[in-house]
Amino acid sequence: MKLSSHLIFVLFFTISQAQNNIETKFSPPAGYERIYNDEYSKFLRQHPLKNDNVVYYSNGKRKYYKFNNKKIWAAVFDYDIGKRDLHQCADAAIYLRAAYHYSKGPKFYDRLAYSFTNGYITSYNDWLSGKKISIIQNGTDVLITDGDKREDNYMSFRKWLDLVFTYAGTWSINEYDLDPVSISDIKPGDVFVEGGFPGHAVSVVDVAVNSNNKKVFMLAQSFMPAQEQHVLLNPKDNTVWYKLDNSEIINTPEYTFESNQLRRFRN
To answer: What average pLDDT does range 234-255 have in this prediction?
Structure first.
């Protein structure tokens, strides 16, 4: 019996996740517990992590583990980012959401749709139908032509994501694909984003809550040039947990956000 591509992806994910993931590697602080048990929150917590804890750029070089003399990350997500300089900050956020929907199978493919910087929305279903997309030289117009249907498999899915990564960025996800959300309602899957050229984005990959409804959260990022996505350390205390406090500033090892820059994917 031939397995569908998304089932193969799920099988690999299931085998890998039991070995090393956020849920097994990091416990919530004392008095806190994970209360978000929706499927996407569990997907993020149970996504496989690399065993070697080394961040590589797309060109194969290693990233230095410190910035301003402080360590940057505590763990590295285990998935192929490709050999081109594409998988950067916004793309890492897109990848997590897209990989989740892809793992759910064809009934969720209609949610695999993301915006280019010029506002054009590309979808995985259109990609499978054979549509070819060309950006006109002025960068604002899109030329669509029909081609042969593409096979639905993980390689095809990744090629489509490379197309998304090429033409999407912090500005497009902030403008078209995300909605503002109050930081008091922070949930796994949310994104801190400063839309710009380049701007920056980091994903909320875990949240824990205590009996007083105080929350702590965990962040992950890619950056420029393209690099593997990694779980960030909090420069304040060198743990993976960030606390909600009266400050409107969220300091990450390589970037600073404001609390009102929290967003949530529409799909």
So the answer is: 92
Using an 8 Å Cβ cutoff, are 195 and 117 in contact?
no
- Torsion angle in degrees (nearest 10) through CA of 124, 155, 78, 46: 50
DSSP per-residue letters across 151-202: P-SHHHHHHHHHHHHHH--HHHIIIIIEEE--GGG--TT-EEEEESSSEEEE
235, burial (CB in 10 Å: exposed 0-12, middle 13-18, buried 19+): middle
The answer to whether residue 13 scores a pLDDT higher than 60 is: no
Residue 45 near residue 39, CB atoms below 8 Å: no
pTM of the model: 0.92
| Cβ pair 35, 213 in contact under 8 A | no
Q: Are 132 and 146 a contacting pair, CB within 8 Å?
A: yes
Helix, strand or coil for residue 95? Answer: helix
